[in-house]
Backbone:
């Protein structure tokens, strides 16, 4: 069971590491999209009648958007590190080199951070009305 958990946490760590890597070394790839979301550009252009009711939600301050993107990136890097620590700890516990309770706690901490990352994306997406099926 611990080996399966280690593998699952490692998959999450791998996925988030790639995303964090891109945000650190090629921020323009996601920063532009993040700015469009916060500005509600698609909502304004595609649904102007509905946009008028939620225009107060958009965020146009460039410095604030860049600051928020940096916070997101720091969070992602931190979550990836904790996930890798959890995955390694779970693998060590599976081999008997670490107490299972310690490994499970570390794995759970990383999993919580991964889940919080996605919940954050969903919550922010709902606030800025990012509607994938609307496009």
Residues:
């Amino acid at each position: 069971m611990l080996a399966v958990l280690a593998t699952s946490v490692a998959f999450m760590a791998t996925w988030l590491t790639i995303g964090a890597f891109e945000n650190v070394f090629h921020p323009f790839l996601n920063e532009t999209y993040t700015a469009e979301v916060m500005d509600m550009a698609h909502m304004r252009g595609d649904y102007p009648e509905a946009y008028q009711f939620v225009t107060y939600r958009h965020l146009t301050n460039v410095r604030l958007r860049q600051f928020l993107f940096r916070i997101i990136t720091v969070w992602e890097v931190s979550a990836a590190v904790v996930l890798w620590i959890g995955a390694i700890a779970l693998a060590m516990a599976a081999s008997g080199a670490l107490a299972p309770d310690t490994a499970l706690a570390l794995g759970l901490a990383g999993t919580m951070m991964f889940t919080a990352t996605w919940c954050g994306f969903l919550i922010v997406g709902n606030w800025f009305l990012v509607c994938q099926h609307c496009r």
User: Anything to note?
Assistant: The mean pLDDT is 93.
